[in-house]
Every structure is written in C-alpha cells, then in structure tokens.
Specification:
The protein is mainly alpha-helical and 301 residues long. Helix content is 76%, strand content 2%.
Length: 301
C-alpha cells in the first residue's frame, strides 16, 4: 500500500468522523419540530437520495448469505442504532451525547478481541477502565442539573447502548468489504435500512410531518442525511480499505470533539466539571489505546 493512499485513507476517516460529529447538532435542530422516528426517517431518506446515483450505477453481486449479512447490518446500523441513539439525544444534550461517543474506539478494541481473536494486554484493560470511568462521570454530571433541557443519565446511557449496536454494524460491514466494494456495501446497506424505516415508522408512529416544518429544520435534515450519513459512511468505508481499522479508530475521536464544541458554542450548552473530566478521560483512553503499535496492545490468540 502506497504512502499516498495511506495518507488519503487517514484523511478520509478524519473527515468522516468530523462530519459525524455534526450529526447530533443537526439532529437537535430537527427534534425541536418533530419526533425521533420522523427525524431519523427523513435523515435517511435524504441520505438515500444522495446515494441514488451510486445505487443506479453499481449493481450488487452478493450471494444469499451475503444478502442476509447486509440486511442484518442494515437493521442494526440504521433503524436500531439511530432510533435508540436519537431517543437518547432527545433526553440529553448535544455535548453529552457527543462525548459519550468517545467510548466507540475502545468498544472497537473489545470487538477486535472478541471477534478477530485478538488478546487485549494490560494497557488495553487500563484504557477500558479509564474510558468507562469517564462515561460514568459524564452521565452522573447530568443527574443534578436544574436545566429543563439538560443532560440526563437515561439519555447518556441510550447513546452508549446504541454504540454497542454500531459495533456489530461496523464488523459486519468490514466482513462484506473483504469481497465487495465500499460503494456497494454503503449504498445498498443504507438503502435497505431506509426501506426498513419507511415501513416501521408509519406503522408505529403514523406519517411524518410535512407541513409546518421550518426551512431551518429541513436544511438540518438534508445536511444530516447527505453530509452526516451518505458522505460520511462512504468516506469511512473507503478509508478502512486503505488503513488498518486499529489505526483509523483513533480518528473517531474527532466526532465527540466536534459535537461537544458545537453544542457548547452554537447551542449554548454548559458542560459541568465532571463532564469535562469524563470527556478528557474518554479521549485520553481512546487515543492511548488506538495509537499504540498493535504488537504492544494486542496479540494473536
């Protein structure tokens, strides 16, 4: 692999993570005018619209087993992950939700240990303990808030639970991309997930609103769909074809950084001392774990 492709792979992953960091910000704007289900459905309808040229020009050549894997990944990665994650966002702040996402690199490390038959050394276990402590501090900092729309433990924990679901989505996509292009896996995976949402949301919550939605909310939905779903997933999946996931994982820390800063500076949210400490612990643990050489952190079983 050339150094140029390696650099481009890192840049793609960094851009993807940064754009993902805007997702909670745009989602919070849309949630002010509609339910979680409607917001998630519109987000992925816009994402599918953005991916339509790729869907029309790239035909999938998956066998029956691979279609089942793709459909399972789509179910986990779109309806389940995002409905749970944005339900959590509706109960907490953008800053808290974004910082909780800082646990994802460590979760990926555990996933590699369990599913790629790697063994986590002492440094990895220390990083996991530090990151878990940081997540607990962030959640607990919202317990005593007097703000009517402040952070809550329930919201923070729902965001973390959605990350466990996202872990399996990433692992299944990685498996599919061993034999198929990132374009096919991304485009048809998001299309399948959107179709699931298009059936589930109207059946359980009724048709999403069309009239009475502000231009600001529509712009946020379009940005979250095209920028924070379609483009980000394409960039991230392509990046993973150029660099090892263990090295790309550290770039996921751009997401909580960007998201929490947007929450503080644009939505005027306030992070308490415990939340800042918890966020620092999460980012420190994730960066330490994912920037160590694989031989120093993992060993084949």
């Amino acid at each position: 692999m050339s150094s140029r492709n390696r650099l481009l792979g890192f840049l793609a992953c960094a851009l993807a993570s940064s754009f993902w960091g805007c997702g909670f910000f745009f989602g919070k704007i849309a949630l002010a005018e509609m339910s979680v289900g409607a917001m998630v459905l519109y987000r992925f309808l816009f994402a599918t619209l953005g991916l339509l040229p790729l869907i029309l020009t790239h035909r999938p050549h998956l066998n029956a087993s691979e279609w089942r894997t793709l459909l399972l990944a789509s179910l986990l990665g779109v309806p389940l992950q995002f409905l749970i994650q944005f339900k959590g966002l509706s109960l907490t702040t953008v800053s808290h939700a974004s910082l909780m996402v800082g646990t994802m690199p460590v979760l990926l490390a555990v996933g590699a240990m369990l599913f790629a038959h790697e063994r986590l050394h002492a440094l990895g276990w220390i990083a996991l303990a530090v990151s878990t402590t940081g997540a607990a501090l962030i959640a607990l900092s919202g317990q005593h808030t007097a703000m009517s729309h402040g952070p809550t433990i329930a919201g923070d924990l729902l965001v973390v639970f959605s990350l466990f679901i996202a872990l399996f989505w990433v692992l299944l996509n990685k498996k599919l991309m061993q034999r198929h292009s990132h374009v096919v896996v991304t485009a048809y995976g998001l299309l399948a997930g959107t179709l699931m949402l298009a059936v589930w949301i109207p059946l359980t919550q009724g048709l999403p609103p069309v009239h009475g939605v502000s231009l600001k909310a529509w712009a946020a939905l379009a940005a979250s769909g095209i920028l924070c779903s379609a483009i980000t997933t394409l960039l991230w999946n392509w990046g993973l074809t150029q660099v090892p996931a263990s090295q790309a994982g550290v770039l996921l820390n751009m997401e909580p950084l960007i998201g929490s800063l947007l929450g503080v500076f644009l939505l005027h949210e306030v992070l308490g001392p415990l939340a800042w400490l918890g966020g620092a612990l999460i980012l420190t643990a994730a960066i330490t774990l994912t920037t160590r050489a694989p031989a120093q952190t993992f060993a084949e079983v």
